[in-house]
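Re: thiamine diphosphate structure - here you go.
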Amino acid sequence: MGGFHLGQSRLEEADALKLFQAAVDRGINFSDNSWDYNQGESERRVGKALKGRRDQVFVMSKFDRRTKESALKQLNDSLRRLEVDHLDLWQFHENNRLEDPDRFFADGRASEATMEAKNSGKIRYVGFKLELGLMGDTKETLCELLPLLKEKKSGRHLNACLDKHRETQRSLGKRSEETKRAGALAPEQVTSILTDLADDDAIFTVDTGMTAVWAARHLRMKRNRRLIGSFNHGSMANAMPQAIGAQLTFPKRQVISLSGDGGFTMLMGDLLTIAQYQLPIKLVIYNNSTLGMVKLEMRVAGYEDFGVDVPQVNFAKIAEAPGVRGFRVESSSDLKDAFWSALRHKGPAIVDVSTNPDALAIPPRIDAKEVAGYGLYVAKQTLHGKLFESIDELKGNLP
Ligand SMILES: Cc1ncc(C[n+]2csc(CCOP(=O)(O)OP(=O)(O)O)c2C)c(N)n1
Ligand SMILES: [Mg+2]
């Protein structure tokens, strides 16, 4: 049911309501609308017509403002006019100029409004208004479309991106050099050594937790390398089972699982499966004896962390029980040898690396709330007589 026509002034309001309700009663259950149709009159009329029929109708409206705040304001207007507590579908409108995706999707822009509205229950689904709907076999459709594209000759955008990528790689490389510390090993360094030694077509799987951060920053992906994780779901303990799947699918390729000690422990029984089928997976365990990501989240929120540390375990010894090769690394000078030996070994192997539990992932952007939270945590540590631990921790992380 099109909301635009229902709100036009040449149609009496009473007739519009009657029309809408008769349609619903005969089984039409999709209500189209938009914030800007007829200065809001379309939404207001549909709101009145919906009384007593809300449950029978899938209510949609659209918005066209680009910033988060202005889009949310439009949503609140739509909800008020339609007299509903949520929309079933809220669509991006007017997404038809070349620069529109950037306007909608950059940081702080309207796409964040859709996420917030979804999380708070004000909308059920997010949609996009289509300029041209296409349905077909992907390959055939793309073959038809490709000749219609005009090739761009300028490499400006690509070169700017490549420069940025190189600059990021340089600064990350510098950081992994700087984080070398006697005793606890820096996870950045562990990852950058691993990336140098792994095959060009290695398949990496990575656990949710700090390991995902180290992988994102320090694993160098190449044309034939693959990275698998639980990135959208963010569920722990994914790396080892994903490695099993990858190795069974590609028996000849090198499969390396980057596991947290927490993640590995959670599904440790899968090690027996690996041993039983002699899958030549290499399990690298970032063993910081803590649920590192949660520890960091607590600190950034201003809490002293609790309930996250676990006793140090030697997973290399656990590996040996079912006949898996185990390497334990406690100092950076042993790292390369252990990786080489494990990667060359024909069967499954665990490289259990004792990593720095206080390694901080400094985010690309830090907001004031996080700085304040971390400051509060250090203040609490100080009050509890642990100032020197905080200083050690910062020293271990600052270049
Ligand atoms: C099934 C599940 N439980 C809990 C969490 C919350 N969580 C995210 S990361 C993490 C800690 C992971 O610890 P570990 O595997 O040791 O990795 P680290 O962060 O120490 O590198 C937890 C508890 C989750 N994402 N999924
Ligand atoms: Mg851990």
